[in-house]
Amino acid sequence: MSYELLTVDTLAGYVATRPALARFGAVSDVREVGDGNLNLVFIAAAEHGGLVLKQALPYVRVDPTWPITPERNGIEGRALRVHNQVAPGLVPEIYDADPDRHVIAIEDLSDHRVWRGALNEGLRHEGVATELGRYVAKVAFGTSVFGLGAKGHKAALATAANPELCEITEDLVFTEPYIAHEHNRILPANEADVAAYAGDPEVRAAIGAAKFAFLTHAEALIHGDLHTGSVLVRDGSARAFDVEFAFYGPVGFDIGALWGNYVLAAARALVLGDDAHAGWALAQAGETWQAFADEFAELWPRRADPRIIDLDRHLDQVYADAVPFAAAKAARRVIGFSAVSDIQSLPEESRVRAIRAVLAAARLLLTAPGPRGEPKPLFERVGQVLAE
Ligand code: SR1
Ligand code: MG
């Protein structure tokens, strides 16, 4: 290892060496709270407020035999600064970035909680789906050709490549669930469901097209991993965090990630008999979309180059991209690496039913998406398929 990892014992000394963190004063208390797949995360209480330090490990935290570049930490720091500029208040503030130790220091949001956990408990945080639609729109506009102009977009694109983390998504979301792979964990009772889903030629064609869009559509500096575990919530507040997968990609990928995770939350709720929560979770798809479309339309008159591109056609294209991405993001969580607690924490018999339902929903999204720009009827049909 060519850099030193932080510990709860060394963190106070480290903070004291960082000029950008001097205003926080001496650190008095430190907790390590990382529970994701990749990083160390510390919450530090200091004389003049709290802060969070996130350090990239040079391997996957949950599988240390799998190396992964720590340079992602710098990529996250740069993306977070940009997202703070274009979508202030919707992401954590960033205070410091250390390229030698692969550490970023960011705002302490420990008065919030991770949305996935709240959804798992059947809690409704009204307005979060709307705030996230606004966040995606602000990023989609502000970092794209619309906000930056053609030359500005090309210059920004040249500074934001993230090939290693994109490759993880290319493999884990778009490839491994559709082949025999050691990462896949399939319950015996779901083997036929997975075989039917992943072997369906229509599903495979749609996933292939979605993968091509992910690989090539360098529209905006998207979050890149916007699942409900990447969102912090509190009554009246929502923040997207963990932007280490950020890259110039298709805007529909962020919308689809949220939609796919609403489907997972709904599948959980249905097998637990909470039909009302399932309906609410699926209704968030329309909330996110409407907020995205409204915010984007609000920004539209300020576009750098007002020629040629039509707003409605553009929104239709984002929508058409988002639907198959939603399917891909839901299906990967029930077939491949990195299962989610929504499903994983269910008793086995319920898990089997939830996984079967998620795959049926993903198949519907891929093969019968319906008219563009109409998430409400689409996700009502998703609800029917999940409940069958
Ligand atoms: C090896 S990283 C596995 C997953 O964790 C992240 O949250 C991304 O979703 C990634 O695919
Ligand atoms: Mg993450």
CATH superfamily of the largest domain: Aminoglycoside phosphotransferase (APH), C-terminal lobe
CATH top level label of the largest domain = Alpha Beta
Query: Largest sheet, order of strands side by side?
Result: 1-2-3-7-6
Task: Report the average pLDDT across residues.
Answer: 97
Oligomer: single chain
Helix share bin: 40-55%
Number of strands: 12
- Unreliable segments of 5+ consecutive residues: none
Any idea how many domains?
Answer: 2
User: Measured on Cα atoms, how large is the radius of gyration?
Assistant: 20 Å
Number of helices: 14
Shape by Cα distribution: globular
Please identify, by name, the CATH architecture of the largest domain: Alpha-Beta Complex
Largest sheet: 5 strands, antiparallel
H/E series, N to C? HEEEEEHEEEHHHHHHEEEEHHHHHH
The distinct ligands, each listed once, are: 5-S-methyl-5-thio-alpha-D-ribofuranose, magnesium ion
Strand content: 5-15%
Return the structural class. Answer: alpha+beta
CATH topology-level name of the largest domain: Aminoglycoside 3'-phosphotransferase, Chain: A, domain 2
Family: Belongs to the methylthioribose kinase family.
EC number: 2.7.1.100
InterPro entries: Aminoglycoside_PTrfase, Kinase-like_dom_sf, Methylthioribose_kinase
Protein name: S-methyl-5-thioribose kinase
